[in-house]
Amino acid sequence: MAKLDVILTYYGQPAYLDRCLASVAAQDFHDLKVHVIDDFSNEPASSVVEKWRRRIKLKHYRSDENLGSLLQIQRMYSLTSAPYVVVLNHDDEWHSDFLATTFEDGLLKNPGCSFSSSLYCSNIDGEVVDATNHLVASCESGIHNFLFHIIFSNWLQFSFTIFEREAFDAVGGFDRIVAASSIGKFDKNRLLAGDSYSWARLSTVGPAFFVNERCGTKHHHSDSFGARNKELHLEEVISFNQRVFADVDIFEDDARYFSLLVILSRLTQGKSIFDAAEDLFEKSLFSDPQYASQRFVNMRPKILRKIVDVLDDFRHDFSGKPKRKILKSGDKERYELHMQGLV
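RE: above sequence
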């Protein structure tokens, strides 16, 4: 049995698949097996898979219907058994040091971690830039608990994140993502943010090993479904945060209410999460003596402290823009004074 299962999703564009598999073959670590899932595409993957069989341990599955990537991943995950797993999009690529840095020196040498991840470059319609095009936590390489960071703004991508199967299964695996996306009838185009939900749940089992280096390249397509349907992407993120708030069996109260504040601030009302927290504690039913509880009163300083710490970690990592921190010094000073009860 291989130590690492690579679940590789494919839906057309064999040239991308060819480059993706070339990047897997270029790794120094070879104790892995790649499972290519062709989601009933119009451009079968078979010829590219045959090209790489001599270099990589490969299995190829072609679905007889288009189910969408989540259901295909769920199915393939149930058929594999390696202790570590990564879900790789066929149009993304690993740099030659990805597995050595993120897996061998990261997850394997730090068994208390439940997953490991790296930064990545972006290929924007053919141009590769040193940017994730996301908000990113400015953390040194090493062990971190990213639960609140992921809830605020997740930059960790499936293609560049390896997770421990046992830890993932302990928090519901892919089955829980499918169930959370299936209120009423399952719709492959209306899901919650499954990557965020995966890393958040895993963060309750063990910390992450983070590599603060760009060890891969993610393709951004201007005509992709996500790019053309930004409102659905926003709904996915909101659904993820709603799920965290609802999952009382997995998440503690401070994480649940932090997630609620993300919905009430940057996602729906365009204001700071710190101000949203103040509104929640001072101008809502939670401040009414009928509803207030000692549990909620005790939660307030913990959440305000967490907001300041998390926001202070984040920076902009967008192509063509300064990589500045998102928390301005004046705001940080104001929040800190508030925390001390001085304003």
